[in-house]
Each structure stands twice: as structure tokens, then as C-alpha cells.
Amino acid sequence: MNHILITGSNGQLGRCLQDKAKLPEWNMYQYFYTDVDTLDICEKAQIERFVSEHSIDVIINAAAYTAVDKAEDDVDMAYKLNRDAVRNLAEVAKAHNCLLVHISTDYVFSGEACHPYKEDDAPAPKSVYGASKLAGEQAIAEVGCRAIIIRTSWLYSEYGRNFVKTMLQLGRERDEVSVVSDQIGGPTYAGDLAQAVMQGVAADAEHEGIHIYNYANEGVISWYDFSKAIMEISGNSCTVHPIFTGEYPAKAARPAYSVFNLRKVKEKFGIDIPYWRDSLILTINKLSGK
Fold this sequence. Notes:
This protein is an alpha/beta fold. The protein has a single domain (3-158, 188-218, 259-274), classed as NAD(P)-binding Rossmann-like Domain (Rossmann fold, 3-Layer(aba) Sandwich). It has helices spanning 12-21, 44-53, 75-95, 128-143, 163-173, 190-203, 223-234, 263-269, 276-287; strands at 3-7, 30-33, 58-61, 99-105, 146-152, 155-156, 176-180, 184-185, 188-189, 210-215, 221-222, 239-243. The strands form four sheets. A six-stranded parallel sheet has the order 2-1-3-4-5-10, sandwiched between helices. Strands 6-9 form a two-stranded parallel sheet. Strands 7-12 form a two-stranded parallel sheet. Helix 1 (12-21) packs across helix 6 (190-203), helix 3 (75-95) runs parallel beside helix 4 and helix 5 (163-173) crosses helix 7. The longest helix is centred in the N-terminal third of the chain and has 21 residues, at 75-95.
């Protein structure tokens, strides 16, 4: 039986991975769920001890510093979690011949492309968050452990804090909201990403080397379109107004275009990726108790 360590298990992806682990198709594994209170991945000795004591075969790193705007001022902490802790995991994974599955982000790209990003397109982050996540990818490459890196975008779920839940709350509290219409990308339901992660683990049980994949739900929209759909599906009468990025100042630069080419992950993992609207309906139904 493979022993799987999941870090950041209290976050959106971590919670969705716990849900997947309960399904019959994935109960052949033994799971170990940790967060900062049970395993501090910034301390390599703790990781080493945990992996040794529990005979870990696979490490799924769902932990990260994700406060995009705060990272512009909190640079050291962003790099501590997104680069240094990842290096710790990679070094322990290499020492124990574990497979490391690491979650990265569309923010590693500049957002200036005119075609869907492929895995081998040159990264050029425009924010501290994006640069720190890219540094984590580079740390894995430098260590050279067996690894799967999955870049994702616009993550949301029924858990934690995220854009969908924020829009639902604003829709209940306000008559109108303004949302940027010139940032284009693909939403990702964390439950779908969790399924892809598990299928990646199953497909790459004897994985060698380091492989990068893009993953988001099928379809391309703007944040404005996404917000309109959230209000419509939830039956909310709140009016959504489109604005430009410059009208909504934020400390960190966002990619204007972060659409992924998904061919590689679909072919390698043998998966069909759900359409973004279908997954959004599923999530809103869960949140409303349907």
C-alpha cells in the first residue's frame, strides 16, 4: 500500500483531497493529513522524521503562501513557504525516493501571451507571489527528485476563502458590484484538481524525472463573466458591472491572460476535464445545501 502525505490539508485543495480519499476508487492508499500545526514544512528535520516514521511513498504539497497582494510586502515569508519549504520537501523526497506532487500557479507567467500557455513556455512572473512560486519549481528542478508539478489558476471550492464565496456574499449584501473584465483565464474547482492529482499519482506511480502540467477547468472567461455566472446560477439579483484592471488598483500585478493549453495533462493522466460552468453549478449547489 502506498503511503501518501498531504501537506496543507486544511486548505481548499487539501480538503478536497480528503474528500477524494474517502471514495472507493482511491481507498487503496493510506493517507497522512498535515498542516502547519502538525508538520512545519519550513523545518526539514520535521519532514525527514515524518517521512521516515510513516514510510511515505508520495508527498502531495498543497501548502503555499497565497496572499498575492500581501506578498508584495511580506517577501521573506512568501519565499520561505513557496521556495525554501518546497526545497525541503524535494530534498527529503529525493533522499527517500518519494514522488513529490507540487501545486504551482498561472502567476509564473507574465500574462502577455496571445496563445494558451503550454508547459514549456518561458515563465516571467510579474509579482512576488508568482516569482516565489516559480522559485519553488526551480528548487525542485535543482534538487532533482521525482516530481509532478501542476500549475493551476483561479482556484475555488466550497471550502475556505475564495472568489466564488466572496461573490456570493457580496451578492447577498449589495445591489451591485464591479469586477474586472480584462483579465482572462480559466477557473479551477479544487475538487476537479484533486481528482486530477490522484489520477496523476496513479498514472505516475513509477514516475522518473520532473514533469510539469497545466490544469484548469475547460473554457475561457473573464472575472466579469465568472461573476455574472455566479450571480445567475445562485439566483442573485445583484448587478455586476465590468471595469478595467486600472480602475481596481491592487498592489500585485495580475496576469491579464492566463489561459492554459490542457492537452498534455489530459493525454498523460487519461482524464476528461469538466467545463467550468458545470463545476461552478456543482459548487454553488453544495454551498446552498442542494
